[in-house]
Amino acid sequence: MRATVPILVLVVAVLLVLSQSIYTVDQRQYAIKFQLGEFIDAQTEAGLYFKIPLAQNVKYFDRRILTLDAPRPDRITTSEKKPLNVDFIAYWRIIDVRRYYQSVQDDEELAKQRLSQVIRAILGQEINKRTIHEAISTERDKIMATTRQRADADAKQIGVEIIDVRLRRVELPEEVLAQVYQRMESERKRVANELRSTGAAESEKIRADADRQREVILADAYKQAQKIKGDGDAKSAAIYAAAYGQDPEFYAFYRSLETYKATFKNKSDMLVLDPNSEFFQYLKQSGGGAKGAKRPAAK
């Protein structure tokens, strides 16, 4: 029994030493092995590794994609000397853990601070070369692509890769928005007035053309009406002439009766004529018959 106790102690000591000599690296991590504070080796692949207990130690670094979120929007001036509030977000990861450790030790915040400074400086340069419209709309993608490319080249110096840079918000400051809205309103009013003027001119043009067409149509219709009327009068005159030719005396008598009827239409009508006038030709004849007409025989 007494002999087994030292054996158990030895076994426990051996297991303790082995546990301190073995370390694992996850697929989501990098590992750096140090000996007495000096860099020895970097493990970039997942697996089981060994170290010397007490003399060597290991530090782990995240190999996943990390987020760099701007703490506050930056005020950047465009080529038009107009200020913009620019907010961005970037995605990065460690690709050279040894260089990363040598550059920033194991301080992730220090790495983020350096990357943020670089990205802000590049964004400022890119937006300084462009107008508000270009920065907000037409060349926004180009700004992000150029910023990522230039920032990535600088980040490689500390063992980091910039995967993407996104402009999350690009907008005018509050004190400038009111002026911009006023200019936009004035511009819209100017465009509206131009459209109204153009519409009024087109309206007058259409109205004048319609009036001209109306006059042409009315003149053409009047011309046709006069022609039809003239043709009717000519036919009427021809019919009257034909009827007059069949019995001139009766036609003259009938026309005289029509004249009498039209002349003495009202009781108050008065006509002063010579009694021997031809107007009373048929009234003076005995029996009211036509001149030279035969009177019917008495029965």
Set out the fold topology:
Elements lengths: L3 H18 E4 L3 E7 L2 E6 L3 E4 L5 E7 L3 E4 L4 E4 L5 E12 L2 H8 L3 H21 L3 H7 L1 H16 L4 E12 L2 H73 L1 H16 L36
Antiparallel strand pairs: 1-4, 2-3, 2-5, 6-8, 7-8, 8-9
Helix pairs in contact: 3-5, 6-7
Mean pLDDT: 82
Shape: rod-shaped
Q: What class would the helix/strand composition place it in?
A: alpha+beta
Total E-strand runs: 9
Helix amount: 40-55%
Rg (CA only): 58 Å
Q: Figure out the total of helices.
A: 7
Uncertain residue segments: 286-299
* Share of residues in strands: 15-25%
Can you offer a commentary on this structure?
This protein has 299 residues and is α+β, with helices and mostly antiparallel strands. The chain has helices at residues 4-21, 97-104, 108-128, 132-138, 140-155, 174-246, 248-263, and strands at 22-25, 29-35, 38-43, 47-50, 56-62, 66-69, 74-77, 83-94, 160-171. Strands 6, 7, 8 and 9 form a 4-stranded antiparallel sheet that branches. 10% of the residues are buried. Residues 286-299 have low confidence and may be disordered.
